[in-house]
């Protein structure tokens, strides 16, 4: 979908902000009725808080904007497939649609290792659309970690 590419582009802008801070470059955008109501990027190293993933931050801000813990009419865009913690936050906030870019073979819980978002044992499920602007999202992450490895070799 063209809209998915548009909003993923905004999530990529957020990921760039994280990269500039030395954070893992992951960005997220929450859309409600066609309007971006929240944007965030990883801040885990900056805050030294486990829950400072882009998805958790964007959900918290979205809750404030909507005035509810339920984000039932929102779509979440994120550059990397959510981890177990973030997939749980997506379920708990009742987000009906998740769109992500790159797959996460080490921690992905929206289809790669498992799909927590489509487990019939939960009382809520989230539609998942994956691989949107995958190459751009994956390359941003790959180059970030490649640079870290190169810096370590020089020490």
Task: Report on this structure.
By secondary structure, this protein is an alpha/beta fold. The protein has one domain (about 1-135): Cytidine Deaminase, domain 2 (3-Layer(aba) Sandwich). Helix content is about 45%, strand content about 20%. The chain has helices at about 1-20, 45, 55-65, 85-90, 135-155; strands at about 25-30, 35-40, 75-80, 95-100, 125-130. The protein has a 5-stranded mixed sheet. It is globular and about 50 Å long. It starts with a helix and ends with a helix. The model has no long low-confidence stretch (mean pLDDT about 95).
Runs with pLDDT <50, length 5+?
none
Biggest β-sheet, characterized?
Answer: 5 strands, mixed
**Net shape:** globular
Number of strands: 5
- The strand order across the widest sheet is 2-1-3-4-5
